[in-house]
Amino acid sequence: MHKPMALRKPFWTPGVLVMVAFMVAGAVAILARFTGGIGYVANLSTARPWGLWVGVDVATGVALAAGGFTTAAVAHIFGRHAYEPVTRPALLTAVLGYTFVVLGLIVDIGRSWAIWKPMFNWNTNSVLFEVAMCVMCYLNVLYLEFFPIVAEQFKGNVNLPGPLALLNGLVDDILHIGDAIIDKIMWALIILGVVLSCMHQSSLGSLMLIAPTKLHPLWYTPILPPLLFLTSAFAVGYPMVVFETTIATSSFKLDSEMNILTPLTRITIFLLGFYMVLKIGDMAVRGTWIYLLDGTAQSNAFVAELVLGVILPWLMLLSSQIRASRKGLFIAATLIVAGVVLNRINVFIVGFKPPLSDPGYFPSIGEMMVTFGLIATLMFIYKIAVTYLPVLQASQEVSR
Amino acid sequence: MIKLIKRIRVFVVMAGVLFIATSPGRAANTWTAPDQEAAKERAKETVPFVSAYKNEGHTERKMRLLDQGLSLSDIHDVYFLLDSPIIKNREDHYGPVRFAHKRHAALIQDCTRCHHYRPKDEAALETTRCSACHQDAFNSEHPERIGLKAAYHQQCMECHKAEAKGPTTCTGCHLKNVPDHTQLVNLPDNADPFQVTAECLRCHETQGKDMIKTAHWLWKGPSPYTTGHSKEILHGKAATALNNYCINVISNEPRCTSCHAGYGWKDASFDFTDMSKIDCLVCHDTTGTYKKEPTAAGMPAKDVDLKMVATKVGHASRATCGACHFNGGGGDAIKHADMSRQLLTPERSCDVHMGGYDFSCTECHKTRNHRIAGRSTSVPVAEGKVSCQDCHGENPHYSGGLLDHHLDNHCKTLECNVCHSPVFAKCKPTKTYWDWSQAGDKDRKPQMDKYGKPDYNWKKGFFKWEESAMPDYRWYSGYMHRVLLGDKVDINAEVINLTTPVGSIKDPSSKITPFKIMKGIQAVDADHDIVLVPHLFPRDKKDKTAFWKNRDWNKAFKDGMSVAGLPYSGSYKWKKTWMYWRLEHEVMPADMALSCAQCHESLKGETTCNRCHQDNRNVDFKKIAHKGTDFSYMKSRGRDVEHLINKTDYINFKALGYEGDPIIYGGRFKQLPMGYGSTP
Amino acid sequence: MQLSRRHFFKIMGVATATATVAPAAADTWQSKSPPDPFGCLVDLTRCVGCRKCEEACAEVNHLPTPERAACQCTIFEKKRRPDDKAYTVVNRYFTGTVDENDTPVPTFAKVQCMHCQDPACVSACIVGALTKDETGAVRYNVDKCIGCRYCMVACPFEIPAYEYFDPVTPRVMKCTFCYDRISKDGGLPGCATICPTEALTFGKRNTLLNMAQKRLTQNPGKYIDHIYGEKEAGGTSWLYISAVPFETVNLPVLPDKPMPKLSENIQHSLFSYLWSPIALFSLLGAIMFGTHKAQKPKETPSQKGGRNA
Ligand code: SF4
Ligand code: SF4
Ligand code: SF4
After folding, report:
1. How far apart are CA B459 and CA B446, in angstroms?
2. Which pLDDT band holds residue B678 (cuts at 50, 70, 90)?
3. ∠ at Cα A272 (A271, A277), nearest 5°?
4. pLDDT for res C120
5. Are the beta carbons of B447 and B455 closer than 8 angstroms?
6. How many domains does one find in chain A?
7. Could you give the C-alpha distances from B381 to B369, B371, B373, B479, B583, in angstroms and in order?
8. Which of A29, B181, B403, B529 has a CB 3.0–4.6 Å from the CB of A369, allowing a cystine?
9. Residue B473 is inside which H or E element, if any?
C-alpha cells in the first residue's frame, strides 16, 4: 500500500484544452443566462419548469457523488480499511460533485442571489426543503472532511505569493489547528455525511411524489421512490468509484488498483441486486409492465434503463472473471453508472409529461453548454486537485 | 285589474305637442332628442329590490297573463335604454343598449319569456322592471339572483341564439365608449396633420390598414347594385361616376377632395397606399372645431388646433359624417334632398330617429373595418346595405291596432318611406334643376326664388330649388342602371337618364320607392356620344383651360377629357339629363305617415273599409282611413305644401302600371278586386 | 476515534424515544384548508367567450392588456394557457355538440389558478413563499421566493408561470384571486365583476357549492352531474359546472386526494423530530464503535485513520 501523494505530472494535455473549450462555452452561456434570463438560454416553459439543469446537473450530480459516502461507510464505518485508497478520490469526487450541484442550482434558480433564503424560511412540508438543507449541510461536512487533505499537503510549507506571504504563518497555524480539531470529530463527520446522504439521496426521489399526474406511471410509484433513489445511489456508489478510478489510473498511468476494485464490486452485486428487485417488484405490484412495450420514448427509456443499466451489469458482475478483468469490470461499472444517470434523466425529464399543456422539451444548446461547461470545469479542477494534492496513490515509480 | 294598463307613462310624447313646443331658432347646444332624453332619465331610476317572487310554472304564468287579456296595445313603454347606475358602478366600457321593447313584445308574443316571475306581493305589477329583481351581482343573501348586467346579457343573448336572430356580439348591441385620449395622444403643440396621423397610427395601425381599403378612402370600390357592373370593384367618384351636379372629380381634384378623408389628393398621382395621408380627425372629431380648407385637396384649415382635436377623438357623429354628406353638390342640402345641417339638431317631426332618439349615422350605417354600410343611388360603390327592415323587420306595424295587418301587407309592395316620409327636403330647400349651359355670364344677376335661394351662378349656371316636395315614385329592386364615364349614350333621346332605378310591377322584390329626380342640362360629345367631363377648377394661377377662370367650354372639355383619358371630338351638345336620387332619411313619426285615403281615392267617400269588413263593433273606419299626415298643419308651420292638402292621389297608380286604385282594380299579384258588397 | 460507551448510549436513547413517537404523529395527515373560504363558480354554459375577464384581470393586476384579435374567432384558434403576462385566459372548445343547423356549438372555458384547498404548490414551495390564506386565496410572496420553480412542477393544473426572461428578479406569476380586493369587505375579483353573463359567480365556497348543486338538480340534462373542484385534488376554491365533460375543456382528471397528502405523509413519517436521521446516526455510530473496538488490538489509534477519512 502506498501513501497518497500529489502527482507531479504535466498539467496541460490535449484533453485539458478540450475541457477549457467547454468551460469557455459554458461561461458564455452562463453570462447569457444572467443577462437575458433563463428563457433566453433554456427551453423551459410553464409546463416544464425543470429541464437539463435540474435533471443532470443536480439530480444526476448528486447520484454520482454517492461514491463519497458509500466508500466512507465501507472503509470507516464498517472498518474495511483495505478500501481506504479509494476513499480519497471518492471524497474528492463528492466534494467537487456537490460543489457543482450547487453551482448548477445557482444557474437554474431564478433568483440566484436568494439561494440562502431557505435557511431562514422553512417549509418543512417541502421535500425540496429537506433536500436543500441536507445538501447544504453535507457540502459543509464534505469540505471539513476534505480539509485534512489540504492541510497534509501544505502544513509547514505554506508559501503564499507576493505580499500575501506575510500571512504564511497565520495560514499555517489555521491549518494546524483546523486539522487537529477535525481529527477529533472526524468520526462524527463521517457518520453525519452518511446520514445526510441517505436523507437527501432518498428525498430526491420523493420530489415527484407531489406530481402523480405528471410523472409517467413507470416511474411514479406512490411509496417506493425514496427507497428506489436511495438503493440506486447505494448501487451506483462503488461502480462510480470503479469508473473514475479506472479512468484516472489509465489516464495518469497509475496502478489499476484492481485489488481493491474487484472486492468492492462484490458488494455491488448485493446492492444492485436489491435495487433491481425493488424496481422489478414495484413494476409487478403496480402492474405497470403493461406500458413496457408501448414503444413510446418513455417506455423505451425505461426498458433501456432497466435492462442495460441494471439487469445486464448485474449479470456481468455475477461472473468472477469479469470482475477480475479490468476491462469487464469497467464496462459493467459504466453500464451501472449510465443506468442511474438515465434513471435520473428519465424521472426528471423523459418521464415528466404534464398532461395539459406540455409543449415537449429538448434541452437547448444553451442549456447543454452550461451543463457541459460545468462538467468540464469539474474535471478540470479534479485534475488540478490530483496534480497538487495527495489524493491518488502515486505508485508508478514502483510499478515501472 | 290589469296592472299593465295602469302604467301609462307620459313617455311617448305626442308629436303634435312637439311641433308647437319647439321653435326654429333654438340654440344648438340646448338641443335634446326627447325620446332619448326620456329613456335616459328612466334608466337612471332605481327601484326598490324585490326579494320574494311568486314561483309558478312558466306555462301556468303565461296562461294567466293571457287570461287577463293583455295585448300589444297595453304596452306603453315602446323604448328603453338598457342602462342603470347599478351597471355603471362596475364598469363603463360600453354605451347603453337601445331596446325596442314593444317590437320585441310583438315578435315574441309572450311577455313571460322575459318577465319570467312576478313579485310575491299581489299588489305589485305583473310585469316589473328587470331591475326590480336583478340588481347588484353576488348578493350574498340571494346568491342565485344574478345581477342586472348578467340578467340583460343572459336574457338577450340566450334568446338571440336560440332564435338565431338578433345580435350576439358586444358591438352588435353596444357602442364601445372611446377612452379618453388626453393621456394617450402625444403631440407637440403645433402638430402638423401628418404628425397627427402618425400618432394615431402608432396604436391604430390595423385601422389604418383597413381604412386605405375602403370606399371612403379610395372613392371607388365594389358596385354590386349597378346592373352590368355588379362584379366589378372599380367604380366610384374617383373613377367613373357621373352626375348632373358637379359632373366628375377628374381634373378638379383640389376642390372636390376637400371632402376626402385624406391629405393632399391633388391629382391622379396621389398615393392611395400611403396610410400617413389618412385624415383621421375629419371623421373622429368631437369638438366641432375641425375644418378642412375648401380648396386645399383635403388639408385642414390653418387655424384648427390639431392637438386639441386629437386628444378629444371619439366616434363619428352626425356632425362629422354631415360635414361632407350634408354638403354634397357644394352646399347644405343641395344634393341629398333628405340630408341637411338640419339633422344636426332635428326636430322629432323632421326625423324621428335622429330627432327623437338621437341616432348617429353609424347606428344604422353599420361599420366594419372602417367599411361603412349603405348603398347610395347616386354613386355605384357600396360596402353593404342598410334598410329599415334591418331593425324593424318585415312586419313592422305592431301598434296592436286594427290596421297592423293591412299596413304590414303594404310592406311587400312599398318602401317604408313612401308613407313615412311623404315629402322630401322638408326642412331645407334642395337643388332639383341645374342647367350648366347657361354658365359663364358674369354679368347676369342671380334672382332669389321663393325660398330665398339664388337661381344663377356664373360658374355653374341656372338652378331651381324645391322644398317639402312630393317625391316621384318608381318600382325599384335595389339595382340601378347607370351611365358611367365613357359609356355611350343615346344622343338623340329627349332625356338621358344618368341613373335609372331598375324594377318592375311584376317583380315581387321590387317595391314602390320614393325618389327625388334631379334634372339637369350638361354637355355630351356630339360625335362620340359620351358625357363630357369639364375641367372647372383652376390648378393654379397660370391655368389656361379651367372654365371657372377662362369660361371657355371647349378648352375645359378638352382638358377634362384628356385627363380622364377619353377622346374629345371638339364639338359638344347640351343635353337634358336626369338622375334618380333615392330618399331615405327624414323619417316622420309613425302618426304622421300618410293616411290610407291620401293615396287610395276609393276611400275618400263614405264607403271605406266597410266595403269588405263588417262593422259590428262601432269602429270608426273613416277616422282610421283618414288619420295621417296633416299637410294643412305643416303649411301653418311654414312649409311649402299647400298643393298637397286634400290630395288623394299621392301615388299615381296608373303610372306605376296598375289599372287604377288597387282597392278597386286589384293588387299587382292578387288580381281579385275588393267588392262593393252590401253596406251594413 | 473517540467514542465513549456512555456517549453512545445517550444518543441511542434519544433516537429510540423519537422513533416511537414520530410515526404516530405523522400518520394523521390533517388538511390545512381554511374553514370558510371564498370561491368562484364558473358556469361554462353561461360563458360567451367575450374575454372581458381577461381584460379586467390584466387591468386590476397591472398586466399587459390582452391581445385583441380583429375578431374573437382568430384568437381562439390557438389554445392558450395562463402565462407570465396573463393570469387567466379563455379558450374555445368544440366538443362535438352541434345545433339544429349542424353548426358546432363552442364551449368557452376560463382557466386560472384553482386556489386549491390543500395546494400542491404551497406544500412544495421550499421557502413557504406560497401560502393558503383564510380568504381562500393562494398567495405568493416574492420576497421569500428563490425561483426554484418546484411549485410549477407540483401544480396539477399547470398554472404557475415564470418570468423566464427576467435575469435577476423573475417572479412566479399566477392568479392572485385578487387578494387585495377580496380581502376587503365586499371586494370582488376583477374578472367576476366584469363578466357580462355572470358565468363567474363569486361568493363563499360553501354557498357556491350549494348553488351549483341546485343548478345541477334544477336543470337535469343541461349539466354534467358533477361539480369540478368540489373534490378534485382535495377540493379547490374555484369550481366549474359544465354541459360537456370536463376533460374536453382541458380540465384534468385528478384524484380526490389532496396532492400534498402522500408526500407530506412520507416526509413527516420519515423525518418528524428528525427521528430517522438520529436513529441512523446512532446505528452507524454503534457499528463504527463496534468495528473499531474489534480492530483496536491490531491497530493503535493513530492520527492516520482520521486523515484518511
Ligand atoms: S367574462 Fe364571462 S362570459 Fe366573458 S369570457 Fe370571461 S367568463 Fe366568459
Ligand atoms: S391550481 Fe396550482 S397554483 Fe393554484 S393553488 Fe392549486 S396547486 Fe397552487
Ligand atoms: S381572480 Fe383576479 S387574478 Fe385571478 S383571474 Fe380573476 S381577476 Fe385575475
Report:
1. 12
2. very low
3. 100
4. 95
5. yes
6. 1
7. 16, 11, 10, 12, 17
8. A29
9. strand B472-476
Question: What is the rounded distance in angstroms from the CA atom of residue C190 to the CA atom of residue C56?
Answer: 5
Helices (DSSP H) in chain A: which residue ranges?
14-36, 38-41, 52, 61-64, 66-72, 84-108, 127-154, 168-206, 225-251, 258-286, 297-303, 312-318, 320-324, 326-345, 365-388, 396-399
Q: Which amino acid is at B248?
A: N
Chains B and A touch (3+ CB pairs under 8 A): no
Place of cell 405528471: A214
Let me know: does A258 contact A322? Beta carbons within 8 Å.
Answer: no
Chains in contact with A, where contact means 3 or more Cβ–Cβ distances below 8 Å, are C
Residue % of chain A over a pLDDT of 70:
94
Of all protein residues, the one whose alpha carbon is nearest to atom 4 of ligand 2 is C113
Tell the residue nearest (CA) to atom 5 of ligand 2.
C115
Q: How far apart are CA B158 and CA B150, in angstroms?
A: 11
Residue A41 has pLDDT above 80, yes or no: yes
Residue A393: pLDDT band (50, 70, 90) is: low
Closest of B601, B629, B635 to residue B419, by C-alpha? B629
Mean pLDDT across the stretch B258-285?
94
- The pLDDT tens digits for B568-612 are 999 999 999 999 999 999 999 988 999 999 999 888 877 778 777
Residue nearest to atom 7 of ligand 2 (CA): C155
For the Cβ of C56 lying below 6 angstroms from any atom of ligand 2, the answer is: no
State the DSSP H helix or E strand holding residue B547, giving kind and residue range, or none if neither: helix B547-550
> B340 near B333, Cβ under 8 Å?
yes
Task: Establish whether residue C258 lines the binding site of ligand 2, counting it when its CB lies within 6 angstroms of any ligand atom.
Answer: no
To the nearest whole angstrom, how far is the Cα of C292 from the nearest Cα of chain A? 7
- Are residues A121 and C144, on separate chains, in Cβ contact within 8 Å? yes
* Ligand found nearest the CA of C150: 2
Question: How far apart are the C-alpha atoms of B366 and A290, rounded to whole Å?
Answer: 62
Q: Per residue in A272-323, pLDDT tens?
A: 999 999 999 988 888 888 888 888 889 999 999 999 999 999 999 888 888 8
Closest among B593, B676, B177, B545 to B411, alpha carbons compared: B593
B561 neighbors B567 (Cβ within 8 angstroms)? yes
Q: What is the CATH number of the domain that holds A137?
A: 1.20.1630.10
- Rounded to a whole number, what is the distance in Å from the CA of A284 to chain C's nearest CA? 21
Checking if the pLDDT of B362 tops 50, the result is yes
Domain that holds residue A30: 2-159+167-399
Sequence-distant (6+) residues with CB within 8 A of C253 are C246, C247
Q: Which ligand is nearest to the CA of C113?
A: 2
Distance C135 CA to ligand 3 centre (A): 14
Task: Give the relative orientation of helices C260-271 and C5-27 as an angle to the nearest 10 degrees.
Answer: 160
Q: Considering only CB atoms, which chain B residues are within 8 Å of C50?
A: 170
Q: pLDDT at residue A7 above 90?
A: no
Q: Using one digit for the tens of pLDDT, what is the confidence trace for A136-151?
A: 999 999 999 888 888 8
Mean pLDDT, range C120-141, rounded to an integer = 95
List the grid coordinates of B83. Answer: 342602462
Q: Is A354–C157 a contact, with Cβ atoms under 8 angstroms apart?
A: no
Other Cβ atoms within 10 Å of B646 Cβ, number = 10
B470 by Cβ neighbours in 10 Å (0-12 / 13-18 / 19+) ranks as middle
**Cell of residue B2, nine digits:** 290589469
Closest CA to A196 of A78, A62, A300: A62
ipTM of the complex: 0.90
CB within 8 Å: B143 and C201: yes
Ligand nearest to the CA of C129: 2
Contact status, residue C63 vs residue C85, Cβ threshold 8 Å: yes
The type of residue at A365 is I
Largest Cα–Cα separation, chain C: 97
